[in-house]
Automatic annotation (TrEMBL):
It comes from the Bacteria. This is Peptide ABC transporter substrate-binding protein. Residues 40-157 form the Actin homologue MreB-like C-terminal domain. SUPFAM superfamilies: Actin-like ATPase domain (SSF53067). Gene3D superfamilies: 3.30.420.40.
Amino acid sequence: AAGSWGIVYDEKGKTIKRKVEATEGKTTEIDFVDKTILSFDIGAGTTEEVVSQGVSFKHKMSRGLPYGVKETLLDIIKVWNLNNKQKTIDSIAEFNAIYLDSEHPRHIRLKEASRGALLGLANRIATDVINKIDDMKDDPYVFIYGGGAAIVKESLQQILEQKGRLTNVIFLKDPLFVNARGLLVYTCSPRFEELKEKALAPVGEK
């Protein structure tokens, strides 16, 4: 749930405004202090489906999904290494370094080799995103981030667009650091200061 703090506020505690679709094909800027937020934090081994009202975490509506990008990436690496004996990829970190660096000499080949597997993973994520949106009473603003989001973004955008479900879906910039930034924003917030003072107060004064 840390990510929602970085979605709603900046490091100085000011609300962040983001552009969203409005009526008649126009866009407008809004903040998310009181908006229903559905976050998909795509990690290596799990994907966290987090619902919040602003920064207020809705525990009963949130859940962890038992998959991330790791298994898919390991499968891609295995096939790549079979076909590229002299240019093997030895870890997910090395895969990320090549895949996310458009200047790397193997970038284009690796993206092409990964396309089918990533579309399969993106289809699974898209199904969970759409099902959750349809399951909620309020139309949420959907934020997608996490280390895995950087890898699967293009495929996921493509599938959601094909299904006509990209409205109010926001792929955050710097998706790898959203939770860390959210924790930073939270620790700078008045709420954290109040909790800290309460925790540090002498017994009997809390």
